[in-house]
Design a protein that fits this description.
Strand content: 25-35%
Largest sheet: 7 strands, mixed
Number of domains: 1
Structural class: alpha+beta
Shape: globular
Helix content: 25-40%
Radius of gyration: 14 Å
Distance between the termini: 23 Å
Number of helices: 5
CATH topology: Glutaredoxin
CATH architecture: 3-Layer(aba) Sandwich
Strand order of the largest sheet: 2-1-5-4-3-8-9
Length: about 150
């Protein structure tokens, strides 16, 4: 995993609508809560995307942009965002290059890992969560990291 204070690698991926998204576009404007998850339409992943949905207003109040990343294709992301009414972007990392750049490993050597990074407006990592099974914990820890950042 990336270290606290390390510069977050920039990337360019496509969202559920086919639009190009770059992390660097947020620099100087918003914090980012970047969550890597294994697969659309699976039990724990659905709990996670919905937990981020449910906390979306609270995250916006912390000046944070929520971005989910998995290897799933654009059409799968589009279906998930519509079905669960997600107010944030899901990005397709088909070849796993961004996952690799963020040092997100595999769970039990089998499944893509579940890791969340909190990135400040300057593009630096300010927090990280690596918990493959407790998906809702990622939202709570992200909010704690954002709150701690505001008090510094």
């Amino acid at each position: 995993m990336l270290d606290i204070g390390e510069e977050a690698p920039d990337f360019e991926l496509v969202d559920q609508e086919g639009a190009t998204v770059r992390l660097s576009d947020l620099r100087g404007k918003r914090n980012a809560v970047l969550f890597f998850y294994p697969k659309d339409n699976t039990l724990v992943c659905t709990l996670e995307v919905c937990a981020f949905r449910d906390a979306h207003m609270e995250l916006l109040a912390q000046e944070a942009e929520v971005i989910g990343i998995s290897a799933d294709p654009v059409d799968s992301h589009k279906q998930v965002t519509q079905r669960w009414r997600l107010p944030y972007q899901l990005l397709t990392d088909a070849d796993g290059a961004v996952r690799k750049a963020y040092q997100v490993g595999r769970t039990l050597g089998l499944f893509p890992g579940r890791v969340t990074y909190i990135i400040d407006k300057a593009g630096r990592v300010r927090g990280s969560i690596n918990d493959p099974l407790r998906a809702k914990q990622h939202v709570q820890e992200a909010l704690k990291a954002l709150n701690a950042q505001r008090t510094v």
